Model the fold of this input.
Amino acid sequence: MSNKENPAPGYLDMELLRFTTAGSVDDGKSTLIGRLLYDSKAIFEDQMEQLEQASERRGEETVNLALLTDGLRAEREQGITIDVAYRYFATPKRKFIIADTPGHVQYTRNMVTGASTANLAIILVDARHGVLEQTIRHSFIAALLGIPHILICINKMDLVEYKEDVFKDIQQQFEPFKEQLNIADVRFIPISALKGDNVVDRSESMVWYDGPTLLEALETIDIRSDGDFKNCRFPVQYVVRPLREEYHDYRGYAGRIAGGVWKPGEKVAVLPSGIETTLEAIDTMTGTLEQAFPPQSVSFRLAHDIDISRGDMIVPADQKPKIGQEVDLMVCWLSEKPMMLGGKYTIRHTTSELRGIIRALKYKVNINNLEENRDDQSVGLNEIARITLKTSKPIFYDSYKENHITGSIIIIDEATNNTVGAGMII
Done:
């Protein structure tokens, strides 16, 4: 490995930051990721050799860092990103997963998929062109998915002579959309991915910029409060009944904590029955816990023997979610087969699976200018719309803004079993 240090002690316990990247064609997104990996010494020697050989075959004088991320043959040939690629690297301060997503409108579903679990989004803007329709589209999708931190990287500053007024002008261009999209944490960084300015190393050509480099921002942005630690939610995945004789009295309810901080001794309710009891203990493979929080996978022991199965939810007795059979969603349509109004679909929500009908289409969103279209009643591939969904039985939910797990819904075609829609409850 070239200049790569051994992982620091406690590597497995290091905080993980997931981030996604988006940008228009030729904004330099692939070059930026390549530069980030190269300058942070996260490239193996054999990868570097392949990169040099590929650049040489293309007749390029220097190593083309963009080739590091354009993994598909079609991507390399066209010079664009098509599919979502996940890259992993670490520094002494944090571990990272990059979702390299395509920026083209025809790959909106790919961008939604890659960005759905991100803590942060990097949106590239070409310094020569400023804020474009694609910039607004990428920002809208990031806001729709509830990504709490946005870094606007104004790239190719070397092509505008590293001028501060160009950087400030683009900041002003974005300001109205920041308010409209209600994005709280937006930061701007002037960079040159090709030259390496302000990516990992501080730029000597932009001494007027006193903020963090891209890597410094990625290492220091506080993500501890990004999850829902207020609304305690525990969807049950599995009822644990060990087969070993010494554990014949054990009954636990296993799952992944979706929200809140849980402690033994608290009064809880089991939905849908509404029966109340006490959380007696929180078990893991290594012992019991004094408290648990997202995204830990644990097993709950309750004070009373209650009929509980997969799809039920354990919540605090005094902090119940909304319960209902009709919900409004913002949905991104993922299928080439158009959405059917009145159509019946399989619905997955937390750990439950049920049936549902799309009752109404309220409007479609033009994701390039954020206008609402209430006349067009068709929703096709890569389109985003607000719909009303009726489920065959009550679901226990929060808004997506409050809780990404209890506020998200997957829509599945019953005939093909393909996922056709990803919905965020309003």
